[in-house]
Amino acid sequence: MRVGLDATPLLGVRTGIGRYTADLLTALAPGPDELVATAFTLRGRGGLVVPPPVAVRARPVPARLLQEAWARGPFPPVELLTGRLDVFHATNFVLPPLRRAGGVVTVHDLAFLRLTSTVSAASARYRALVPRSVRRARVVLTPSRAVADQVREAYAAELGATPVQVVPHGVDPRWRTASPPDAGLRARLGLPPAYVLFVGTLEPRKDLPTLLAAHRRLPDAPPLVLVGPPGWGERVDVSGVVTPGFVGDDDLRRVVAGAAALVLPSRDEGFGLTVLEALAAGTPVVASDLPVLREVGGTAVTYAPVGDVEAFAAALSAVLASPGDPQVRRAQAAPFSWQRSAEGHRAAYALASS
After folding, report:
1. Residue 128 confidence (pLDDT)
2. Whole-angstrom distance between the N-terminal and C-terminal Cα of the chain?
3. What is the pLDDT of residues 221-274, one digit of tens each?
């Protein structure tokens, strides 16, 4: 079977969807299917790095121009960019028009519908693009049961009889053996010997004001470190906070492994990969009490209500005083693997091609 995948998220700084796409391609590459990666960008195939034996087929067309065309009608079909396909997997919400291939689309979350004021202009366009994608698809994938339920409710008319399948993300096995940063890495990133950590794009949906306010209520807590690329939205006061910016995967694993606690105060999530990776590294986690994060974190995570500063401060204080058993956290993360995720994706491709 010849399967095309949207590899556009691999270009530039890799946020959560970029890491999902990279790890999925790596897990799929040894399998029986012929894989073709494409990118919807003016850069075309330039800069698109994929694991062998994945082929790259792309034409230099601006993504926004393509999305505007796809929002209006069925042209251009994706096969004009990739060549013949049996299945095309839209990894990032937007399933292009298809000539003959079966379509699979991953809908990571519905923040663009549920929290419209927190998303970027690019994500806001999903309000028009995702319903078309769902109608075109033969299979819709979500990373969690919580998002699957939201998709079925929001797009019942567009779905019809189209199945919505839950295929959780995995965790790179290197997280399970990650060691804390040494003195050299701490010096390079400006890390203190002990620290509380946030990892993610600095955007409104992550609700950093709640984390900052909660941390300031704990004067004896280790310093706060915010790791991630700049995002958008109202600026927050990060005075007294360590902000290394974007950190590559190898360094990130060590930074997470060395944290006294990782805190994710998000108002909405599609999966919670950051939580899963921290658990795999044995790091204590405090997170918003969202159904999707309970799917991933189970009882190994300490939860606080969304936006509740006092509750987050209390939860963080409790975790810092009594961090618990790292083996319990690793056991919670153990069932999640990219090999298992790849099997779920292959099953969706087989269904879409039938």
Report:
1. 87
2. 11
3. 999 999 998 877 667 778 889 999 999 999 999 999 999 999 999 999 999 999
From residue 280, give the alpha-carbon distance in Å to each of 97, 170, 217, 233, 257.
Answer: 39, 11, 29, 31, 9
What does the pLDDT read at residue 29? Answer: 97
In degrees and rounded to multiples of 5, residue 344 shows phi and psi of: -65, -40
Asked whether residue 269 falls in the same domain as residue 153, the answer is: no
Quote the domain boundaries for residue 11: 2-170+337-353
Say whether both 249 and 308 belong to one domain.
Answer: yes
- As a whole number, mean pLDDT of residues 99-125 equals 83
In the block, which residue shows the tokens 């050299």? 184
Cβ atoms of 329 and 15 within 8 Å: the answer is no
- In this structure, the chain runs to a length of 354
The order of strands in the sheet holding 34-38 is: 55-56, 34-38, 2-6, 87-90, 102-106, 139-142, 164-166
Residues 6+ apart with CB under 8 A from 319: 261, 284, 285, 286, 302
Whether residue 133 sits in one domain with residue 39: yes
How many distinct structural domains can be found in the chain? 2
Give yes or no: residues 47 and 162 share one domain: yes
- Listing DSSP states for 148-203 in one string gives HHHHHHHTHHHHTT--EEE------GGGGG-----HHHHHHHT--SS-EEEES-B-
